[in-house]
């Protein structure tokens, strides 16, 4: 591995510095339900329990979890269908996001810039105040992805979809990521009118939430865990959107995991289902393993950045910022509400 580099470690840590303005819940376009108000308070007071250990900057990314208040006072999240012409994850249901650019000073900057480029969401922090930055997730391509949660206060926004990247924009109830049954659907009448067409009626025989356990460590074998994996597996969740007949794919994998955790923090309780597979490795173990077994772009990032991967792996080995216990119980220590 490359020699020890402290400058890269410190520059990476700067990505997680941000200013959290006071939340003005009375300024939402529609009156909040009491439950939704508490959700926003939980998100706005959320703090990660440990500083994020170092990771190669060029393999670091962010997604924007853009929430808004529907007509009935419930919280919804904006989702997009990736363009079918893309070379990776074509047609998938996703959150707007991408890798850190050189001009991004913080991980929040990355998420906001990508959302502006993909779906035209303004980078105005007054109209879209920051709620929180959650602990990162490790994608299957060894990219460290951090969710940045914001609240849309302006319901006059209009989408400007980047056609080479995004085909469709729609919304989904945040609370439904804690449930095993289809959410009750109604037009939420929030921002981006195109995002809120009524969902198609789902066939009753289809399960809203399903999952598959895939073998770990990487490279994964896409299928049931095998004896060769010594019982270690990562659980991949899948939620139907109700729009599958129209060509929209279910919410799956990394996007589903991010939204499960966002909803759990917001509503302050675990999902109705077990989040993790038996013996599933926590984030620190998975990141450390990836740093010791880098593939292609991560290996290239380590080399180009003169990044001390073994030193970083040892820090991730001891990191206690994981989200769930192996049994799938809720581990978030909810902060006091405002």
TrEMBL record:
Among InterPro entries, the record links this protein to: CoAse (IPR045121), NUDIX_hydrolase-like_dom_sf (IPR015797), NUDIX_hydrolase_dom (IPR000086)
Q: Which domain of life is it from?
A: Eukaryota
What UniProt keywords apply to this chain's record, in alphabetical order?
Hydrolase
Q: Under the GO molecular function aspect, what terms does this record hold?
A: coenzyme A diphosphatase activity
Q: Which residue ranges does the record assign to the Nudix hydrolase domain?
A: 58-200
- One of its Pfam families is NUDIX
**SUPFAM superfamilies, per the entry:** Nudix (SSF55811)
Q: Which GO terms describe its biological process?
A: coenzyme A catabolic process
The identity of this protein, by name, is NUDIX hydrolase domain-like protein
Q: What is the phylogenetic placement of the source species in the record?
A: Eukaryota, Fungi, Dikarya, Basidiomycota, Agaricomycotina
């Amino acid at each position: 591995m490359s020699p020890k580099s402290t400058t890269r470690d410190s520059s990476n840590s700067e990505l997680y510095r941000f200013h959290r303005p006071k939340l003005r819940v009375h300024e939402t376009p529609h009156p909040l339900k009491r439950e939704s108000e508490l959700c926003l308070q939980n998100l706005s007071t959320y703090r990660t329990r440990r500083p994020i250990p170092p990771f190669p900057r060029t393999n670091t990314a962010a997604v924007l979890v853009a929430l808004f208040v529907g007509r009935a006072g419930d919280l919804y999240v904006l989702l997009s269908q990736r363009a079918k012409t893309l070379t990776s994850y074509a047609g998938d249901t996703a959150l707007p996001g991408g890798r850190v650019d050189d001009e991004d000073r913080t991980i929040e900057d990355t998420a906001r810039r990508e959302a502006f480029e993909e779906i035209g969401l303004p980078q105005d922090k007054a109209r879209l105040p920051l709620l929180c930055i959650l602990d990162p997730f490790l994608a299957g391509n060894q990219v460290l992805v951090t969710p940045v949660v914001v609240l849309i206060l302006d319901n006059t926004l209009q989408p400007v979809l980047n056609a080479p990247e995004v085909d469709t924009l729609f919304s989904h109830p945040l609370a439904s990521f804690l449930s095993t049954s289809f959410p009750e659907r109604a037009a939420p009448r929030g921002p981006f009118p195109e995002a809120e067409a009524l969902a198609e009626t789902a066939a009753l025989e289809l399960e809203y939430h399903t999952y598959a356990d895939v073998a770990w460590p990487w490279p994964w074998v896409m299928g049931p865990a095998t004896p060769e994996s010594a019982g270690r597996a990562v659980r991949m969740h899948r939620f139907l959107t109700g729009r599958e007949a129209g060509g929209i794919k279910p919410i799956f994998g990394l996007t589903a995991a991010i939204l499960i955790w966002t909803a759990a923090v917001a509503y302050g309780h675990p999902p109705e289902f077990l989040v993790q597979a038996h013996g599933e490795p926590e984030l620190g173990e998975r990141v450390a393993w990836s740093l010791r077994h880098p593939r292609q772009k991560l290996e290239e990032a380590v080399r180009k950045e003169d990044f001390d991967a073994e030193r970083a792996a040892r820090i991730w080995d001891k990191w206690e910022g994981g989200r769930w216990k192996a049994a799938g119980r809720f581990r978030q220590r909810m902060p006091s509400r405002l």
